[in-house]
Design goal:
Number of helices: 18
Distance between the termini: 47 Å
Radius of gyration: 23 Å
Structural class: alpha/beta
Shape: globular
């Protein structure tokens, strides 16, 4: 029998003059999956943090098991059986996977029963198909592996009855996402109440029993029965009428008019932090007016490849040429001056500074930053330029005075993308640029990348969404077990063929 686990009545929260959630009424039951949909900035993550006790409501009430909760906090939520997998991971990078999991479990007390904990984790991993090295340090992991740690942390709490997943598949490969969705269904059938936030509407339609749609902090639609709901109905409830068209962004590919390579990489071998060669003797080139897609399951060397090309990671062997000039020993600064630009898979960790505003982040990459006659930054002029910047408007980046720490991952990604477009790079390395973005913003990203490609930029496009890779790429390479297969012309590839290389390499 379904049981009402949590209910809100006119729940609202305001940050200074910004109302993030406005009179939200929602009910979550055991044995059901409740999806929360909405654009970036619609208030989804804020609502989840209210339910979990990270934020305190400005107005309204929260009821757990029918009783009003007067003092709400994460510890209260944990006591009452509510667990949450956050979009921004709660992990200590200098600790191992096992140590991070241990710190999340109060019931183990002060004594670290390593063998007992490993045994419990092993049972869960085998049951749910989770594969993670418990002895690795978190700083050595990719996003998909970090996501799995967070899931293990909530599953190990035996009293949990309600599980909140904030964008749980955004860092996962298609096969990993499928396994996670299957896991959610298993947990539902075991009696758990599940809340899932995702931008991927097909995922919602696949697993959700009911859907609440948020727009500008308010509930814009509620679907109690998802059997007859269409993708179009959900999208219409999510977005402004003029912000999205159903048509896929056109990507008319032209035949190469030159075999000149903007980027050429030869015999490229890269090691990870363990000293293992994650990419061995790779060769590829990227031409002006070309998008080279990179496919592979999570942890196949994508992160190391991007870091080595931008100059953050030294290759073991190999040569890198930019416009026929050797660059493998150049500094990051010199590569930036040559027109290299990087969109990392973890912007918050790699190129975002807490305590700084959006305006300050944009000006860091401004080659023509305005100055006063004394040589200082003219912040008044910089703010004026920011407000009238077409890319800031195009990507709907929020006010320049906002601190990055207060923004959702999707809104930070908008700023990173606007900054990339402003730089007008000659070589763009883009790692999962659509991750965590809503449909309308993904549309804008694709349109902007095609504009950059058509203007002469060479783009390395890393994604785990095969539909996106096939649509956006001119050619595609696939990473598997340290080897790079391809390049293949995208128009000659299929979802199934790429998938076989990702899972089996040449043994297809």
């Amino acid at each position: 029998m379904e049981h009402l686990l949590i209910e809100t009545k006119d729940l609202s929260i305001q940050f200074k003059n910004f109302v993030a959630n406005n009179k939200i009424n929602i009910r979550i039951y055991s044995g059901r999956i409740h999806a929360i949909a909405g654009e970036n900035g619609a208030g989804k993550s804020t609502l989840m943090k209210l339910l979990y006790g990270v934020y305190q409501a400005t107005e309204g009430e929260i009821y757990i098991d029918g009783e009003r909760v007067k003092t709400h906090s994460p510890s209260v939520s944990a006591e009452k059986g509510i667990g949450m997998v956050f979009q921004d991971f709660r992990l200590i990078r200098s600790f191992t996977v096992l140590e991070n999991i241990y710190l999340s479990l109060k019931e183990y007390g002060k004594i670290f029963h390593k063998k007992e904990l490993k045994g419990k984790i092993k049972v869960l991993c085998e049951k749910y198909g989770i594969n993670v090295d418990l002895d690795k340090y978190v700083y050595q992991l990719d996003l998909g592996e970090c996501q799995q740690i967070e899931i293990l942390k909530v599953l190990l709490r035996e009293n949990n009855r309600l599980l909140i997943f904030d964008e749980p598949t955004s860092a996962l490969s298609p096969s990993e996402a499928e396994r996670l969705l299957d896991l959610l269904v298993q947990l539902k059938e075991s009696g758990y109440g599940i809340i899932i936030i995702t931008h991927k509407i097909q995922e919602i339609l696949k697993v959700a029993d009911e859907i609440t749609v948020l727009k500008k902090g308010k509930v814009s639609a509620y679907f109690s029965d998802t059997k007859n709901v269409t993708e179009k109905e959900i999208v219409s409830a999510m977005i402004e009428n003029d912000s999205f068209t159903e048509d896929t962004v056109s990507n008319d590919r032209k035949e190469f008019d030159s075999f000149f390579s903007r980027i050429m990489v030869k015999q490229w071998t890269i090691k990870n932090e363990y000293g293992r060669e994650v990419i061995k003797n790779a060769y590829f080139d990227i031409r002006p007016h070309e998008i080279l897609g990179v496919a592979g399951i999570s942890g196949s060397g994508q992160k190391e490849l991007a870091e080595s090309l931008i100059g953050l990671r030294k290759q073991k062997t190999g040569e890198l040429y930019f416009d026929n000039v050797s660059k493998e020993n150049c500094s990051i600064k010199k590569r930036k001056e040559d027109g290299f630009f990087w969109i990392p898979e973890e912007p918050k960790k790699d190129i975002v500074f807490r305590g700084m505003t959006l305006l300050e982040h944009v000006e860091m990459f401004n080659e023509k930053i305005p100055t006063t006659k004394y040589g200082n930054i003219d912040w008044e002029k910089a703010e004026e330029d920011y407000e009238h910047n077409p890319y800031i408007e195009q990507f709907r980046v929020q006010e320049g005075s906002k601190e990055v720490a207060s923004l959702s991952g999707g809104n930070i990604q908008r700023m990173i993308l606007a900054r990339a477009a402003m730089a007008n790079p000659k070589f763009l390395i883009a790692s999962y640029p659509s991750r965590g973005l809503d449909i309308s913003t993904v549309n804008m990203v694709h349109k902007e990348f095609i504009r950059l490609r058509n203007s002469g930029c060479a783009i390395l496009f890393i994604s785990e969404d095969l539909d996106e890779l096939l649509h956006m790429s001119d050619r595609i390479v696939v990473l598997y077990d340290g080897k790079m297969y391809g390049p293949f012309f995208a128009k000659e590839m299929t979802y199934e063929r790429i998938g076989k290389y990702m899972l089996q390499g040449a043994s297809r």
